[in-house]
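Record type: ASSEMBLY
Status: queued
Input:
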Amino acid sequence: MPRRVDILGVPVDVVTEPDALSFVRERIRTHTPSRVVTVNVEYVMHAYKDSAFAHVLQTADMATPDSAGILWAMRRQGEDVSQRVGGSDLIWSLSEQASREGHRVFLLGAAEGVAQCAASRLQTRNPNLTVAGTWAGSPGPSERAFIVDLIRRSQTDLLFVAFGSPRQDLWIAENLLHTGACVAIGVGGSFDYVAGTARRAPAWMRDRGMEWLWRLYRQPWRWRRMMAIPRFVWRVTFGGHASSRLNKEDM
Ligand code: UDP
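Status: finished
Output:
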């Protein structure tokens, strides 16, 4: 198992993308139901005020570092990390691995038609990929039983869930064992990127840890959520209180 670092009470694994791929492959091979979370600054700051979400993150089977801010905080603890491991890259690499290994994948979430379109694009790049199913759906309780049954009948190995954070990770924690899927991962807006309904930041921005700025430019309504970033920097730099508070109250 990889080393874990505590970032304000949220564990994050010291892993690269190949490590995450091996982890998923192994969990599917051994039929071990597992949850993967891709942790960014908003996750950590949301966990600080939402103990249910904090618990979901603390009990995930793998937690990858998915933002420049998280990598920065890990480096402050002496870890030699420089690459983000996030849903919008993992959806491609995991699909490529799934096609090679014969794993079935299911795409749940995003707006009507987006998951279907993303699945077609993944199959265009990986002609041997078996898409067990897609469903737009929503994380609301009224659809829960139907969606769980749909996934169970699809017999998928790998489940991508795009309900946005924190809903996707809460949904996975509550439902994974009922779906029969082996590994589930919340991938945020990744279906939109794969389908082409949203554009990712240019590579030069991603490489410089500026994807948040691109998202703010494309989706200005995010400014309130993004206030998490300066608060995070402040807490990591000046206070260890968040971590001790979470550990006491939520674990
Ligand atoms: N979404 C959904 N159902 C909902 C809310 C959101 O399927 O009830 C989808 C939305 O269409 C989008 C994704 O969840 O495809 C969330 O994307 P966002 O960029 O907000 O996620 P983030 O990566 O910021 O968590």
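Annotation: The radius of gyration is 17 Å.
Annotation: Residues 241-251 have pLDDT under 50 and may be disordered.
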